[in-house]
Amino acid sequence: MTEYSSDLLRLLDDRGYVHQMTDAAGLDALASKGVVSGYIGFDATAPSLHVGSLVQIMLLRRLQQAGHRPIVLMGGGTTKVGDPTGKDEARKLLTDEDIATNIAGIRKVFERFLTFGDGPTDAIMVNNDDWLSKLEYIPFLRDVGRHFTINRMLTFDSVQLRLEREQPLTFLEFNYMILQAYDFLELSRRAGCRLQMGGSDQWGNIVNGIELTRRVEGTEVFGVTTPLITNPDGSKMGKTARGAVWLNADMVGPYDYWQFWRNTDDSNVGVFLRRFTDLPMDEVRRLEGLQGADINQAKVVLATEATAMLHGREEAEKAERTAADTFAGGSSAGLPSLSTGGSISILAALTGLGFCASNGEAKRKIAEGAVKLDDQPVDDPAHTVVVSGDPVKLSLGKKKYGLLVP
């Protein structure tokens, strides 16, 4: 482990947030001298962010915890273009009203993780539409476009992915990387921002912004990227059979959120404790050292701490109690539910609650004896569940529980 002099880099390194840095020694020295303003950009393509964005949200939280100023950059302007990174096709274009609604929903999440205000280390939220929509095309091409070569832009993964698959890459999207680089330049001017952070797939975009800012302003700025977190099967963290794990409570409730963390694969428990909780590192190291069945204790702590950060301690502990009662065969209050209209096939129930991704998977689970209704095994994949009065409890294995309601 590298020895750093600044609290910021020691914290990020200790908790495993660092994948690449453009100039570690320079950033370490800057962070040791005073407050550093750093930003991460988030496009407003939905009314909520999901768990896949949580590493970046936590990175801003760590920046503030280390005594520096987080800048949340909402991409009100770039959302109108669409980031081609990792995408096979162009995104649907949103209206100004859609984007404004999405930003309002996303801000609520950030207010759970960051302290906003006017102090030197208080977080601020800015919208790149404030400057991007005011750009004049010819002056922008002359003053900014001349710093980018088509040769280099064609080497970017986001461009090559589309070209290799012979899928259209619009000129609109091709400009995205220039606009993102311009954001760093503009934030350095407006807010004294010296640091951009992001996921490992944003490295090229971050380097573009650093080089543009140095060439135009002569300002020394820095970049940090985080490692990609994947599930054991190689899929991106934050995706389940039911879709994205959203951070807004009206899209994914506290109990389902708690269960997402409780169902963490053994191999990720230590990583998640470091990056998604505020537990002291001594406690993290103790929990990640647990073996065998004892690792379930660490998963419960992870689920409760992560849920408390987003939804509050009361909701987190309520979810933990509900799960404990359910596993013990007791109360089922607070479980995810599915309306049946009075009856539903067992296959539709399993897929509707998100316990299985397909009817085929549901049939296999039934054949394995893993499916129960009110704690009684189901062995017929053609079974119809009649729900005329009280809710019926559906379980898959020892971790997934839900209610079927009329």
From TrEMBL:
Its EC number is 6.1.1.1. This is Tyrosine--tRNA ligase. Homodimer. Belongs to the class-I aminoacyl-tRNA synthetase family. TyrS type 1 subfamily. The keyword ATP-binding applies. It is an enzyme of class 6 (ligase). It comes from Sphingomonas sabuli. Catalyzes the attachment of tyrosine to tRNA(Tyr) in a two-step reaction: tyrosine is first activated by ATP to form Tyr-AMP and then transferred to the acceptor end of tRNA(Tyr). The lineage of its organism: Bacteria, Pseudomonadati, Pseudomonadota, Alphaproteobacteria, Sphingomonadales. A motif ('KMSKS' region) lies at residues 236-240. PROSITE patterns: S4 (PS50889). L-tyrosine binds at Y39, Y176, Q180. Its main location: cytoplasm. PANTHER family: TYROSINE--TRNA LIGASE, MITOCHONDRIAL, TYROSYL-TRNA SYNTHETASE. ATP binds at K239. One of its GO terms (molecular function) is RNA binding. Keywords: Aminoacyl-tRNA synthetase, ATP-binding, Cytoplasm, Ligase, Nucleotide-binding, Protein biosynthesis, RNA-binding. The keyword Phosphoprotein does not apply. NCBIfam families: tyrS (TIGR00234). A motif ('HIGH' region) lies at residues 44-53. One of its GO terms (cellular component) is cytosol. It catalyses: tRNA(Tyr) + L-tyrosine + ATP = L-tyrosyl-tRNA(Tyr) + AMP + diphosphate + H(+). It is found in: Cytoplasm. InterPro entries: aa-tRNA-synth_Ic, Rossmann-like_a/b/a_fold, S4_RNA-bd_sf, Tyr-tRNA-ligase, Tyr-tRNA-ligase_bac-type, Tyr-tRNA-ligase_bac_1. One of its GO terms (biological process) is tyrosyl-tRNA aminoacylation.
